Amino acid sequence: MAKIDTDVLLIAGHYQATEQIDAFLKKQGYTIAWVETASEVQMACEKSSFKVVLCSLNLRQGYGLDVLRYLIEFYPSLPVVMMAQSAILQDVLNALRSGACDFFIQPQYDLPSLFRSIQKNIRKYRALLDNDAYRKALEENNLQLQLSLKELENDQKAGRHVQQRLFPVSGQELNGCHFSHQLIPSLYLSGDFIDYIALTPEVTFFYLADISGHGASSAFVTVLLKNLSGRFVKSYRRKADSDILSPVVMLQRINQELLETPLGKHLTIVLGVIDQRQNTLCYSVGGHYPLPIFTDESGSRFLSGGGMPVGLFPEPHFEEHVLPLRDIGKWSLTVFSDGILEVMEGRLQDKEQRLLELVQSCDHVPERIVNELDLTALELPDDIALLSVRKI
Amino acid sequence: MAKIDTDVLLIAGHYQATEQIDAFLKKQGYTIAWVETASEVQMACEKSSFKVVLCSLNLRQGYGLDVLRYLIEFYPSLPVVMMAQSAILQDVLNALRSGACDFFIQPQYDLPSLFRSIQKNIRKYRALLDNDAYRKALEENNLQLQLSLKELENDQKAGRHVQQRLFPVSGQELNGCHFSHQLIPSLYLSGDFIDYIALTPEVTFFYLADISGHGASSAFVTVLLKNLSGRFVKSYRRKADSDILSPVVMLQRINQELLETPLGKHLTIVLGVIDQRQNTLCYSVGGHYPLPIFTDESGSRFLSGGGMPVGLFPEPHFEEHVLPLRDIGKWSLTVFSDGILEVMEGRLQDKEQRLLELVQSCDHVPERIVNELDLTALELPDDIALLSVRKI
User: Fold this and answer.
1) What is the predicted pLDDT for the residue at B75?
2) For position A42, which CATH number holds?
3) Using 50, 70 and 90 to split pLDDT, how confident is the model at B375?
4) Quick one: A371 exposed, middle or buried, by C-beta within 10 A (0-12, 13-18, 19+)?
5) B338-361: pLDDT as tens digits
6) Domain count, chain B
7) Are residues B117 and B171 in the same domain?
8) Kind of pairing, strands A384-391 and A80-84?
9) Contact at 8 Å (CB) between B285 and B306?
């Protein structure tokens, strides 16, 4: 049963002084429960909740100090003000030591002072209750937030787990080249995508795409992209067409597909084909930045690029570049998504220079680059992807 | 500068009694800062943080009550125990009224009692500080949780926004039928998917699919499904093939595509074609439950089904059912995803009966069914999708 809310519990005999207190407090707007004997206190406390207790040291039945000790034991935060018609020093000290928060002698002569004490103690008690209630609300809120967060995190983790299946196994040897990659999504789901696949024992196809935005909405497009390139691989293998051998044709097909899909997303991409028969690297850049970094015996440089983002324009312009590899011994190629630039400081030109030095000092090994920049420890504003192709 | 942590601030002249207190407390293991005059108190409090103050009423310089009032004003939670070599009742009452938490006369004779008081007050003060620290930690934790949750929610909302684009506009008239749907995801992203499209002015294609699981990972497959069916629509329109006219062929193609995609997901589906020339509803059920509900003048019934889930088996079995519509005037068809069964109570048989009554009483209108079951107010364990086709 809910307790009745009462301001003051007055425990005192029916004297003129007590009546004055009762009348005075009522006049101040307080609700009062008045009991005369110690034996009535327990029931009063079970029936009502009080904000302050005003207890006489001298009761007709029972002892005020016993009542005080009972209250302190069972309602430790409830303030108890003691009072007496007359008292000796030791009475006051005893009351104090037993937990009284104030003591009044002959209060009828100083009702305003008693009133102030009651006000102050009620205020303190309320603050205590408020504080308790606030803490409880915080705790509950916290628990609720943790549950909601856990639910969303689990959903994202499940999504991430499924998305991981779309990526190739990093560290593969395909037709004389070592392919590896690193992917650090800013949240759980990645809007960057990478794939590499040996079409024949002599031709290898690869790409790195960076879908506009990041997170769940961009991750949708990675699924499409994987599906699309998979279809082209399939139709090439069953000799239906050889679209996949031409990076420009591939960009046009992806462009068309994205425009037809109502997702409203576009992407930038570097897409290439390494042909061992002709000893060439044929690639196209669809609005991608930074440009691919190529390293041979003469050092590292950005390859030339050009071309529009993919999925924005009905008639986009793309370029196909052919890099002859015949006279080059060892070479390496590294492609970054533009998230890498957001974790570097300085002017764009400095960042580009830094990237060139970085891939060279890390020998185009994605893991080393990630460690060098301490990427996994950072809060990333965008996904970061690195694709590396190294001639074995 | 960090304050030195000291247990007791002792403010008293150098009497034998004070020395006894100092020695006694030190023996109990307390650290003590001892100042003799009121003027030293401020600096002591700036230098150290105390857990309790022991202040003499009678100081050589300054008044103990003034020190008490200063401490209560600037360090309101710090407990102050007053003491005096001798005192009158009014001194004690004044100290009490000014905020002292205890008072001792000639403490040298009752050091254990003073010690208990100090212990008790230190304990209370510590609890107060701990409570404050705990509340602050809760508040900070709360804020952090809210930020993390907001980030994930925003990501999911963005994903949801993009996913919404894949769905047809609900409430379309296509070739003499009214198509509408409702979709209530259990989180943000849906693993249920619906589409309907007029292939020609006489042939309409539709499906409702329920992808295994729910949330982000399942939502990936809705993108694939939309893309796949879009491709079949396209190839039908450019007369490359008419696979889309056969529900069984479509299920086989979707099955194959899912098996080839490394997402590791399967789905159940009801897929149909309404042909006005032949006046037929041709449909297939891929492991979907509950079965589609068909209503004509003779009442509502579940259509016959059969067929395996899609994307699990390399050689699945699907059936094609043809329902002649020639002799039927008005008819309606409603398909639910199985999430609907999870919010209904009772045995499966009862739920099926309830569904039949529900679609009839709600006249196959998805909005009414959603309202009738109060679905938007529920915490859904799985996505719920409803597709309705009504002959106009």
Assistant:
1) 95
2) 3.40.50.2300
3) confident
4) middle
5) 999 988 889 999 999 999 999 999
6) 2
7) no
8) unpaired
9) yes
Say yes or no: A69 and A114 in one domain: yes
In a shared domain, residues B90 and B189? no
Q: What DSSP element (H or E) covers B34?
A: strand B32-35
> Which residues form the domain of A189?
166-391
pLDDT for B1: 65
Which of B223, B234, B263 has the CB atom closest to A220's CB atom? B223
Complex ipTM over 0.90: no
pLDDT of residue B329 exceeding 90, the answer is no
β-strand partners of A389 = A179, A333
For residue range A310-362, what is the model confidence (pLDDT) as tens digits? 999 999 999 999 999 988 888 999 999 999 998 888 999 999 999 999 999 99
Q: Do A135 and B139 touch (CB under 8 A)?
A: no
- CB contacts, 8 Å: A97 with chain B: 102, 113, 117
Chain A residues within an 8 Å CB radius of B235: none
Q: Which of B105, B158, B217 is opposite residue A159, by nearest beta carbon? A: B217
Whether residues B170 and B130 fall in one domain: no
**What's the rounded Cα separation, in Å, for the pair B351 and A51?**
54
Q: Which of residues A112, A135, A158 is at a domain's end? A: A135
DSSP state of A322: E
The answer to whether the CB atoms of A135 and B138 lie below 8 A apart is: yes
Domain-embedded: residue A156: no
A223/B contact by beta carbon, under 8 A: yes
pLDDT for position B226: 93
Sheet of B177-184, strand order: B172-174, B177-184, B384-391, B332-336, B293-296, B299-302
Q: Scanning every residue of chain A, which has its alpha carbon at the shortest distance from the alpha carbon of B259? A: A227
Which domain CATH number covers B259? 3.60.40.10
Assigned domain for B170 exists = yes
Q: What average pLDDT score do residues B136-164 get?
A: 92
Question: Cβ atoms within 10 A of the Cβ of A112, count?
Answer: 9
Q: Which of residues 147-186 of B touch A (CB under 8 A)?
A: 148-149, 151-153, 155-156, 158-163, 165-166
Residue A156 to residue B161, Cβ atoms within 8 A: no
